[in-house]
Amino acid sequence: xxxxxxxxxxxxxxxxxxxxxxxxxxxxxxxxxxxxxxxxxxxxxxxxxxxxxxxxxxxxxxxxxxxxxxxxxxxxxxxxxxxxxxxxxxxxxxxxxxxxxxxxxxxxxxxxxxxxxxxxxxxxxxxxxxxxxxxxxxxxxxxxxxxxxxxxxxxxxxxxxxxxxxxxxxxxxxxxxxxxxxxxxxxxxxxxxxxxxxxxxxxxxxxxxxxxxxxxxxxxxxxxxxxxxxxxxxxxxxxxxxxxxxxxxxxxxxxxxxxxxxxxxxxxxxxxxxxxxxxxxxxxxxxxxxxxxxxxxxxxxxxxxxxxxxxxxxxx
Length: 316
Known about the structure:
Blueprint: H1 2-7, H2 13-25, H3 32-42, H4 51-64, H5 68-84, H6 87-100, H7 107-116, H8 122-135, H9 142-154, H10 159-172, E1 179-180, E2 184-185, E3 190-191, H11 193-205, E4 229-230, E5 232-236, E6 246-252, E7 265-272, E8 275-276, E9 281-285, E10 290-292, E11 299-305
Parallel strand pairs: 5-11
Antiparallel strand pairs: 1-4, 2-3, 5-8, 6-7, 6-9, 10-11
């Protein structure tokens, strides 16, 4: 019903609004048919009035986020868009890459954004710089920090670019590396609507940087606060007093449909809480001394003593 209401508007924005509404409805679903629809929108060669195509490119990133196979296929599609499409579509590609990898500084994605950040078109390079900030938000990633330092020297005469670099650096070192913007939580099962909305306000305002963030509406950046979350795992007793517990943190492994009790993490390290967890990492208790009340170890977790635990007596 909402879509039909939007389509009755006799203005070019109705096309843009319809695509934004549809892609937000399918965000994180990995729906292949919708991705095809969005690619179909981008196939038309338009140089003027192509806002709906920009929204469609970001929509591809939105629909495929949070699902590994879809994300890889989307990266390949973005490569094709950069090769064959007109300028408005190319300008949206870095933002879509940023939305696809929020707080996840993947090597190949950062590499691609680093190349785009030296593009002769000012808008593509500015969007790529902000996307680098989104990808590395709250990770303190040293490689991205180095790239942003080089960019601030490279563009030291361009006020707009320097502003974008400063924003990206602020996102990178957000909360001294203790925070994340990632909207997907609970073992990458659930997407937080408000967090994703906050990120999208920034992404869509970057489609026209000259008249939004680089003009008088720079306060739109504050919408990111909806998405900012601590990425620590803290264990507490039932009376909410802090309790250090041994946990193993490693790369999350997909265990759906596997028989028996498969390992849920790989390449783990053992730490004592509180501990930081990255976007694609997962934690599990490293001791049988305590049981966690929640099945997912993220954020603040209440633990209680295991009544069946028997300490191993050392043979003297």
